[in-house]
Amino acid sequence: MSDKKKSELSQNRKNYSDLLELAIVFGFLFLVISIYVPRAIWDEEEYFEDKSHFHMENMFDVQNFYKSITGEYDPDGLWATQVVNSVRDSLTGDSTYLGEQNITLGSKSFVVNVPKGYDIEFDTTFGFPMTRRDTINDTTSTIVMYSEDLSRNDTSYVQKKRLSKFMSDSNFVALLEEVPTQRVEVVSYYDSYMPDSSMYFCPVTEKPYLISLLDEGSSIRVDSPIEETVVRRRYTVFSFKAYNHGFINDGTRSWDR
Length: 257
What we know:
The protein is of the alpha+beta class. It has two domains: 41-126 and 193-256, no CATH class; 131-188, no CATH class. The chain is 38% helix and 35% strand. Strands 6-7-10-11 form a four-stranded antiparallel beta sheet, covered by helices on one side. Strand 3 (127-147) and strand 4 form a beta hairpin.
């Protein structure tokens, strides 16, 4: 075989090897994409579904608060949200804002009946239960008190903030020592928020939720506005899909079944 043919053969082998390596690289990249991209899309679908459910729950709760102060539901979710938030704001500024109260919002004037505990129920409904650990610095006092039951002096340990109460007692004998102490206390609280107009709209379609009055206005239903599956292309070959997110019918959630 001539040197020329050997050179051409060697070059062809090199080109073939380069193409094979390139194909392996593209194959590996496609494999990675095929695994991680669908997972990312599924996570996105779950995120929007959870967000939509959260919005629907808030709209349902807003309606219940609206009924508690007006005596009826209102299919206009934006108006109901504005009213219940206005009452909560008024209670923030005046804790005696209870019973029958006149409200003017925009061009509308009307009367609401604010029940006692409205603010507390509002904050716990529209809030996330949280806990925190607080470090409490205190002082423990060792005191001697005369015990009539024992007919002798008795040693006790009390918090310093309560010391004055014991010292004013006729059975108080002596203060022996005061020792600084530190303890960790778990505190439960609610991270509250105000429902806003964005919660009236589906995060996928940006259409308002369907609010229906049932049983002659005695109950209410909140439905997802998605009628047909929403399909949005991702990276040409993949698709984001959003199906109907369900409903809340008089407190019963379809996604709990």
